[in-house]
Specification:
- The complex is a heterotrimer of chains A (481), B (258) and C (335).
- Chain A is mainly α.
- Chain A folds into 3 domains: 267 residues, ABC transporter involved in vitamin B12 uptake, BtuC; 74 residues, Arc Repressor Mutant, subunit A (Orthogonal Bundle); 83 residues, Orthogonal Bundle (Arc Repressor Mutant, subunit A), CATH 1.10.10.10.
- Chain A is built from 23 helices and 3 strands.
- In chain A, strands 1-3-2 form a 3-stranded antiparallel sheet.
- In chain A, β2 and β3 form a beta hairpin.
- The longest helix of chain A has 30 residues.
- Chain A starts with a helix and ends with a helix.
- By secondary structure, chain B is of the alpha/beta class.
- Chain B has one domain: 3-Layer(aba) Sandwich (Rossmann fold), CATH 3.40.50.300.
- Chain B has 11 helices and 9 strands.
- In chain B, the strands form 2 sheets. Chain B has a 6-stranded mixed sheet, with helices on both faces.
- Classes of the chains: A mainly alpha (481), B alpha/beta (258), C mainly alpha (335).
- At the B-C interface, β2 and α11 of B face α14 of C.
């Protein structure tokens, strides 16, 4: 059940945005320009705007979806080459009827793209030239041929109004009904292919050698992917432009890559980010002074990427910094607990609490520092402070005993098993004590024969002492061998 | 279980070259069934190349390979493969279970999803390599030995009769090494044939029933005790280059830029 | 169609530019040669280091640097342009490293994200400040080499050295040639084996950043003639074509210069005939030369391979690798 929701969830969220904004527009609360514009844009009052919005959503969806595979297959440069290589095909498609017929342009551009990528394979297979050289070569040569054709077309009497120059940087406002229909068809084919052939795509992306050895048709999958990719690129050209359309493939998918560890989630997230970027770009172009849509969509996608980079919960830069900081804070708290334990132990477990002075002496810190430490412990429920004396809470006592046990077990282990001198093991254990997990500790205890005394002769807190309800107990008194 | 009268693997006069430099030259071999066979030789001897060529992953300039009497494409479902760990990007967004399930894809055919039986089988394969508790872990968060065991579990999920393994023991800890060899011996006892490219001579003698000494062509092949001799090993790894490798060097030098 | 492709008048296309209009086409050809040569020399090292993608990246990301330089300095002077380009190049490098070293995003995607973002920002700035910046969006993509002769001339006393852009490009070419000659060994070793370079006392990072700086300078100088995308062709085509004909690096450099000259000349012919962008025509001509080399190269060409593929099989030989004679000859040599 949850898996369905993971896919449906983002889709619903996607539908929520226009609905919410539509509601805002209808209520017409505020008179500012911005909200009015948003309302106008998203409530489909303008027929032309309808096409722009629909087109942006569709292209964001296709590009984001397919871009996921480009990113995980490390084919970013291939995407870039493909997007430039289609240009002569666009020009030829225009020449077919001397009009901007979306279908002929799609066919022409797709053929050009496929010819380009075949040439790249041919060059790498028949010469010493490496793949990046071949890609750059085809990219620039085909693009040059396209520019030649376009400048030739612009010379013609009918050519000046061809609108072909809009293909360079994109003009979403130029999208018409035919364009959007074609985009919808391509989007449906893209989504359908990804769903139908998902496992083949996954296997060939992850380990092409193994996939091939399993009998999966890796070459067909690759060619199929390239075909659908080319088609998606081409229908996106009018809105985003030749130069920047490859960014719509890569950037939303890269942002998704930073946020999830499973491919199927990546694909959905990438499609969602693609839509976000597409709509943002189209809207800004609608509002702004005759700016081409392509660069705006790319800036939108890059903003999403930057957000994922900084704020991603698992891999984001801020999250990592936060984890590191909280890790250091935790270590500091545990060291304080350990010091408290040591003070009590040194006093033969007679007193229940530790005065701030004793702690300050033990830790060689000032009274103010120790007071602050005490407050931190109190905030985390590990100790209580009453008139300058610190008392363990049950949780604090447990954790203190665990830390001390970990430390001493590790020292004993190093001394016995690794033959390290007893006076060298302390620092190592200082670092390890905070991170030993329960299973490792149990393993250590077993290996050391449930020893009770560490290399320095101090007793090792047993599980009973740690989890028991009595106060701290001096174990060496309880056992006699 | 009836044993197959046809040899699991037959290689005839296979030659493979990279950019005009020969890597394998005229290899002839018949592999018997139900054996655990190690392939040893110096670096660049063509060991990985041999098994990749058998599975059609590399083009052969001459010769042919028959698996259970048929070309590879017709018996892919009877062949299992453990590639080198470096062949994969371990940052890929999949977890351990996803990878093992990929071993079942070859049998599913297009448009089909893995069934519950497939998942059960995958779980039992993970259990055999002691990785079941890690089924949901993303593969980047595994140690080298664990990654190797994931690959092994994936190959087990293929339920093959002939297994090719490319340096499965490279860079793994002792616990993983013993886990792997246990699994391999169990496979062999069930009548499977396993070819393992191996990098370490002392353990090669311990682990394998038969050894293939390879240095661009077959130096020797047979029972480990018979083949693991100083003379043959010297010939395989020896200081003096064979004529073949000299020619290969010369050809390679011709193509390099100066 | 007949309107699109003008009739081919051999005289008008091949002869006239040099006899009737040499003051115009002469400078264009010279500019084309300088651009292709300088880019080709630097591009050869990019090719060796498998860094062709970096050429793509730098050429795109220079745009915002240029626009900001224009806006800040208010002029199209050389110095602000170079500063703008080098800063943009530095920012690109930092961005790419930040992305791919701190996250699991791989280098290819990191490069794509970095340069497309910067380029997009550049285009937005160009269009927004169209009045103040003497660039239009199309020019950014494919330049306008035809306008070079119309630029103010640089004079040394009474000697006319050439239009400003040409003078700049020729100086850059000279600088690149001198650096390549001076640091030939260092560049070669650090490209092939950075470890060996380090042990020989050559610092591979300095070589790398020096190369990046040279790349930025070359690209920005070429920018207004050929634009951001065609410059990639200029970086790769000469060296790629030369590599198909020889394996020795000095010859590769030399043949790159020949390729540059030929593609300039043929490009002008093509451009005059088809009446299209001259820079694009030069690239198409260069690609044509590449195709010729690919097919006809005596060693690596398609025809040569097809021939060796159909050699007769002899015992102990393998198709296209070695014949029995070669084996016997080399075995005689080794004893």
């Amino acid at each position: 059940m949850t898996r369905i929701w993971r896919i449906l969830g983002p889709v619903l969220f996607l539908l929520l945005i226009p609905s919410a904004l539509r509601a805002a527009g209808v209520r017409d609360l505020v008179e500012t320009n911005w909200l009015e514009q948003i309302g106008r844009f998203f409530t489909f009052r303008d027929v032309a705007v309808r096409y722009v919005l629909a087109g942006s959503i569709l292209l964001g969806l296709s590009c984001g979806l397919l871009g996921s595979f480009i990113v995980v297959r490390k084919m970013a440069l291939v995407g870039d080459t493909l997007s430039h290589a289609v240009l002569p095909g666009v020009a030829l498609g225009f020449l077919w009827n001397m009009t901007k017929d979306p279908l002929t342009i799609l066919i022409g551009a797709t053929i050009a793209g496929l010819v380009g990528t075949s040439l790249v394979s041919a060059i790498t297979q028949t010469t010493r030239l490496k793949e990046d050289t071949a890609l750059g070569l085809v990219l620039a040569s085909f693009f040059a041929a396209g520019i030649c054709l376009i400048t030739m077309i612009q010379r013609l009497p009918t050519g000046n109004k061809s609108g072909l120059d809009k293909f360079l940087f994109g003009q979403a406002a130029a999208l018409g009904a035919d364009d959007v229909t074609l985009m919808a068809i391509v989007a449906v084919v893209a989504v359908g292919s990804v769903i139908a052939f998902y496992k083949e795509l996954l296997a060939t992306s992850f380990d092409p050698g193994f996939a091939r050895a399993s009998g999966l048709p890796a070459d067909w999958i690759h060619h199929g992917l390239m075909l659908v990719l080319t088609a998606s690129l081409v229908v996106a050209l009018q809105a985003v432009g030749v130069v920047l359309v490859s960014a719509m493939l890569i950037t939303p998918a890269a942002a998704a890559y930073l946020l999830t560890d499973r491919l199927h989630r990546l694909v959905v997230l990438a499609a969602f980010f693609g839509v976000l970027a597409g709509v943002a770009g189209a809207f800004l172009s609608f509002v702004g002074p005759s700016l081409p849509t392509g660069p705006l969509m790319v800036v939108g996608a890059s903003t999403v990427f930057a957000a994922a980079f900084l704020f991603g919960p698992r891999h984001g830069v801020l999250a990592r910094w936060w984890r590191q900081r909280s890790g250091m804070a935790r270590t500091q708290r545990e060291n304080t607990l350990k010091s408290m334990f040591h003070v009590i132990e040194t006093n033969g477990f007679r007193a229940e609490g530790v005065t701030l002075t004793e702690l300050a002496l033990r830790r060689r810190e000032t009274m103010e520092d120790v007071q602050r430490l005490g407050k931190k412990l109190a905030r985390h429920g590990l100790a209580t402070v009453t008139s300058d004396v610190l008392y363990f809470t049950p949780a604090g006592r447990q954790r203190a005993s665990e830390i001390v046990r970990n430390h001493r077990l590790w020292e004993l282990y190093l001394t016995n098993s690794a033959n390290i001198a007893a006076d060298h093991v302390h620092e190592d254990a200082e670092k390890i004590e905070h991170i030993l997990g329960e299973s490792v500790v149990r393993e250590l205890e077993r290996k050391l024969g449930y020893a009770t005394v560490d290399p320095h002769g101090k007793s090792i807190p047993t599980p009973r002492a740690i989890h028991g309800d009595a106060g701290l107990v001096d174990e060496t008194k309880g056992r006699r061998k | 279980m009836t044993s197959d009268p046809v040899a699991p693997l037959e290689i005839h006069d296979v030659t493979v070259a990279y950019h005009r430099k020969p890597v394998l030259w005229g290899v002839d071999l018949v592999i018997p069934a139900g054996q655990l066979i190690g392939i040893v030789g110096p670096n660049g001897a063509g060991k990985s190349t041999l098994i990749k060529a058998c599975m059609g992953l590399l083009p052969m300039q001459s010769g042919w390979v028959k698996i259970f009497g048929l070309p590879f494409s017709k018996v892919a479902s009877r062949v299992g493969y453990v590639p080198q760990r470096e062949s994969v990007d371990w940052d890929f967004p999949v977890n351990v279970m996803d990878v093992v399930l990929m071993g079942r894809y070859g049998r599913l055919g297009l448009l089909r999803r893995p069934s519950k039986t497939d998942r059960e089988l995958a779980r039992s394969c993970l259990e055999k390599v002691h990785l079941l508790p890690y089924a949901n872990r993303q593969i980047a968060n595994l140690s080298g030995g664990q990654q190797q065991r994931v690959f092994l579990a994936r190959a087990l999920a293929q339920e093959a009769d002939l297994y090719f393994m490319d340096e499965p023991f490279a860079g793994v800890d002792a616990a993983t090494e013993s886990a792997i060899i246990t699994v391999l011996r169990e496979l062999r006892d069930r009548g499977k044939t396993i070819l393992v490219v191996h990098h370490d001579l002392p353990t090669a003698r311990q682990y394998f029933d038969q050894l293939l000494l390879l240095n661009m062509n077959v130096i020797a092949f047979g029972k480990t005790e018979e083949v693991f001799t100083a003379e043959l090993l010297q010939k395989t790894y020896g200081g003096r280059l064979t004529i073949l490798s000299e020619v290969a060097q010369a050809l390679g030098a011709q193509s390099a830029p100066r | 169609m007949s309107q699109l492709i003008p009739p081919f008048d051999a005289h008008a296309v091949l002869v006239a530019p040099w006899t009737e209009n040499v003051s115009l086409f002469g400078w264009i050809a010279a500019m084309g040669f300088c651009v292709a040569s300088a880019c080709g020399l630097v591009g050869n090292y990019l090719m060796l280091r498998r860094m062709a993608l970096m050429g793509d990246a730098v050429s795109h990301s220079i745009l915002p640097g240029l626009v900001v330089a224009f806006l800040v300095s208010g002029s199209r002077g050389t110095v602000p342009m170079f500063i703008g380009a080098l800063s943009a190049g530095a920012i690109t490098t930092v961005l790419i490293e930040t992305i791919h070293k701190r996250t699991r995003v791989k280098q290819d995607a990191a490069i794509g994200i970095a340069f497309s973002t910067l380029f997009a920002i550049g285009v937005i700035l160009t269009v927004t400040y169209a009045g103040q910046v003497d660039l239009d969006a199309e020019c950014v993509l494919y330049g306008e080499i035809a306008f070079v002769p119309l630029e103010p001339m640089v004079r040394l006393g009474s000697l006319v050295l050439g239009p400003e852009p040409f003078f700049r490009m020729a100086s850059v070419l000279l600088g690149v040639a001198v650096l390549v000659a001076a640091f030939y060994k260092e560049l070669l070793v650090s490209s092939f084996d950075p470890g060996l370079a380090k042990s020989l006392g050559i610092n591979p990072s300095i070589m790398h950043y020096g190369l990046m700086a040279a790349l930025s300078v070359v690209v920005v100088s070429a920018f207004e003639s050929v634009g951001a995308i065609l410059v990639i062709a200029m970086l790769i085509l000469p060296g790629a074509t030369a590599s198909l004909l020889t394996t020795r690096l000095p010859l590769v450099h030399g043949l790159s210069l020949v390729h540059a000259a030929l593609s300039s000349w043929l490009g002008i012919a093509l451009g005059v005939w088809l009446d299209c962008s001259l820079a694009a025509a030069m690239v198409v001509a260069g690609a044509g030369l590449f195709a010729l080399a690919w097919i006809f190269s005596p060693r690596e060409g398609l025809i040569a391979r097809w021939r060796s593929h159909h050699e007769k099989l002899t015992p102990h030989s393998s198709q296209g690798i070695v014949s029995r004679d070669e084996v016997e000859r080399s075995s005689l040599r080794s004893t």
